[in-house]
Amino acid sequence: MSCELTQTVLHGYLDGELDAARAADFERHLISCSDCVAALEANENLRSALRRAALYERAPQALRQKLQGQLGAATRVSAMPIRNPAPWRWLAMAATFLLAVFVGWRVLPLLRGSHGESALASAIVDAHLRSLQPGHLEDVQSTDQHTVKPWFDGKLDFAPPVHDFVKEGFPLQGGRLDVVHGRTVAVLVYARRKHLINVFVWPTTEPDSEPLAGSQLGYHWTDWRKAGMEMCAVSDVTPDDLAELQRLLME
Q1: pLDDT tens, 159-209?
Q2: Is residue 151 assigned to a domain?
Q3: N or C: which end of the chain has fewer CB within 10 A?
């Protein structure tokens, strides 16, 4: 029997509708409930697939011009005394509705872009929390980059950059495979004093970008793109520590 929280709480958590206390309670519940973890991953994969499908189209400029012309004509005619104004009212209502749909087509991609950043941060933090469960942190445990890097060969369609920064205070701990928004990604695990840092890595066709940072549920994250790779580091270390590791990885 599946956990009842998959029906009563999970969707609210996924949509960001829970308050901080309830969200934290549910995340603690995820540590010990495989049913909710599986349901959460399935919902995240479905949302990602729908987003990638791009189920919207941009209305052509000609349609906007036509609607504006019809609205103008309806306004002019409505000022004239006619016996049966109902057809014109329906025409104006229909034109207004179509114009609203057109505006929606223009605005929704922008909203989805903003939501995409939030969804990515949530997925990364969720994956970080799952990795803290016993036995989930590393698939290959080694402080030697020449052991960790070859381990990924044949398991991914890209080669993640692997470096050890023990001299700088960020010793490599190992690596693993993880799934974020339905895509298999590489994860490099670093230590900072008594804290763990997960660095998620996957290929991208987007141009290089400066780091974008934020925090969620008490965890800090920073995301950036360089040389065809996107990386996102997350941990409970200070933002300055996370920024220092990000700087080392970009060199």
Answers
A1: 999 999 999 999 999 999 998 877 889 999 999 998 999 999 999 999 998
A2: yes
A3: N
